[in-house]
Amino acid sequence: MEKERLKDRSAELRSENVGKLMIRLAVPTVTAQVVNMLYNIVDRIYIGHMPQVGSDALTGVGLCFPILTLISAFASLLCAGGAPRAAIRMGQQENRAAEKIMGNCFGMLIAASVLLTVLFQIFAGPLLVLFGASDATLPYALSYMRYYLMGTVFVMISLGLNMFIMSQGFAGTSMLTTLIGAVLNIILDPIFIFVFDMGVPGAAVATVISQAVSAVWVLIFLMGKTTKLRLKKQDMKPDGSVLLPCLALGLSPFVMQSTESLLSICFNTSLAKYGGDMAVGAMTIITSTAQLMSMPTTGICQGGQPIISYNFGAGNVERVKKAFRCQFIACVTYAFLFFLAAMFLPHLLAGVFTGDRELVDYTVHYMRVYSAGIFILGVQFSCQQAFMALGQAKISLVLACLRKLILLIPLIFLLPHLLSDRVFAVFLAEPVSDITAGIVTGIMFFSRLPGILRRGPGGMTEESGE
Predict the structure, then answer these.
(1) Given Cys at both, which of 76, 197, 216, 433 links 408, Cβ 3.0 to 4.6 Å?
(2) What's the pTM value of the predicted model, to 2 decimals?
């Protein structure tokens, strides 16, 4: 009976109507991403409304964002490349090879989480100062960071292994992984912050507990009977022939996420220089609302990934094209709708995070500037993630570097020397890079797709550097 259910799941990826399957997989993943976003912003919402100290505390916690993002980035380095490769192997009817991929990635997750915990605990203070913390905001940032780092292993397990759940087509289970933790976080936050009067550290403790519960849920599922790929102790021993192609493919999402840390440093140091704590606080709110755009589009692409990867492995070109078309339309539509919200409802978005009217008014003006090019990110996200699903490591990495490393970071420092309003110039760097990168990514994807599909999964060997 169990084997029959697993066969049915593979049959769905292979033959069910693509549009219906995409919706069925994407709705839970979008829901999961939106809920996962609450992990990152619900702390800021509660903290921003703390009496007297809310604005400084909100800015301080926002300064922790680069470190939190780096932790997620390492989970992606190890698993975002492994998950699509596992799905492709499943499409080739090589489930045992797929299990070995998952086991190797899990072993590296544990090792990386221990190392990151030690390093960030040692260097948290100097790093937060580097990120732009002032005398007023550093105590809040440091107190949040110390507690949050205790849960690094839980964060990496829940984020990393959940990708393997999704790659098997278990969208509902993947959604539950984030739902369980995020709902628990929403419940525990006000209890630890206000009832136990722990303030900022209470928000971090609530998050650690919530992530721990999510991690346990993931491990129980992947060691149980329902999953197609099962975690096995013998698969956790590092094997270079298995890990290196996964790391090569995972470099792209790692760069995309880790550069968010570098971007935060660049934005915060520039804004602290030209606009002070008010500008840094506005940036905290704006980046939090920007997650409302990036997380759902990521969820859409995660819903499309198992369909694209499985059928690419199985050589079913038409289903790959149909799945990408659905993914592309959904991402572009959502990005445009969010653009409209950022242009016409910025007071509503900013007001969620703080009751400080001065900070809200300051944020509204620059949110419109920052979001002016966000309408085209649907093109970039859908095409770049499709390269990932097709196992195209090199081109995906190049495109991940283009928007942030090649364009955005230089513009953050260049534009203030060209425009008289230097704070405006810093925020303007975002839409200029968004529009440029979106156009380039779209052109590269549609020009290369026919060749990738013609070569098939055998072309991954050259592309991944195996």
Answers:
(1) 433
(2) 0.70
